[in-house]
Fold each of these.
Amino acid sequence: NASMLSYMLFSCLLLSVQAHNCKVSEIIRYTKHLLDENPVNCPCRETTVSSCSCLPIPETGHELSCFVEGTEHMMKNSMLSNEILQRLNQSFQNQRDRKLCGHLSRSDQCQSKTKGNVKEFLTEILKTYQAIKK
Ligand SMILES: *[C@@H]1O[C@H](CO)[C@@H](O)[C@H](O)[C@H]1NC(C)=O
């Protein structure tokens, strides 16, 4: 019937708007830029402030909260290009607060199963957004 159809149309529209605001291609591009700066790949240590710092590798549903946390940590410690980190921070916070990107923004709190160094953290971001793009 008609109301069912308009509901379905509305849902499709909403989903496509949300996917659009997820800025998948933009985030993939920024993350690749940061990986190109070639952060040193060493085992992460809680006490270090370098690309060997420990950043959260999120559990499902906690992605955006953890990406915000890790990105802010990198900014505070002046790791990698600050201009790109700033844009990533803004996109992640915006997506988390507006509950965009489907399950990535399900939780406001970062919960991580493990920690990784800067390179592993960035690779996790890349993998997460590349999976959405498919
Ligand atoms: C990250 O982005 C948010 C939202 O735009 C902003 O309020 C916050 O100050 C930014 N964090 C840093 C460390 O710049």
Amino acid sequence: MDIKENFDNIKKQIPSFVTLVLAAKTRTKEEIIQAINAGATDIGMNYVQEAEHLYKDLGSQAKNIKWHMIGHLQKNKLNKALPIFDSIQTVDSYELAEAISKKASTDNPTIIFIEINSARESQKAGVMPEDIEELIKKLASLPNISIQGLMTMGPASNSNTLRQCFKETKQLFDKINELNIPNIKLKTLSMGMSDSYLIAIEEGANMIRLGTVIFGPRG
Ligand SMILES: *Cc1c(COP(=O)(O)O)cnc(C)c1O
């Protein structure tokens, strides 16, 4: 796998307003550095501990990267997570947002995205689409956090369901912005992975999270 070639090819396929987040779980430092040298600016991590190691390993380079938490975040990991991550894309409860709000700093509010369970799969993380409005209204007054986006994984199944889930997530995104809730202006819609990013962009994503198409299959 030529990581630079993969990265360049994808950048050519996608509009410039779409942010490409490297989904870097299980990849080596060397692989990730190749992607950074090819131009990657954003890294998504699923585990706090893995992110800590990578952050240290990258040294001064780490500061030039935007770090996104894209895995489930446990409240007891917040002290370690907050100094690393610029954004937490997987907030799906008032309790987690409140815990972040208590620990984040006023000078440097933590960017959070609400994760939507767009496929309504009971075993999956995320807020049910019908509950998002109430949750965001409750979160709007919490200090030290800035709610800037929605994130969804979508279903693992066929691409028609997938497209429908992405479409509905975009509709929710627009609807929330139309409500003009004080403090709430969503900017980022994070959806689409290696097998779905083109569909996601067609349906309104402006952030995609890619692992396999950049780095090759996970070993
Ligand atoms: C692994 C992962 C991705 C990327 O998956 P690929 O299919 O390898 O592109 C995107 N989002 C999340 C939350 C992930 O865990």
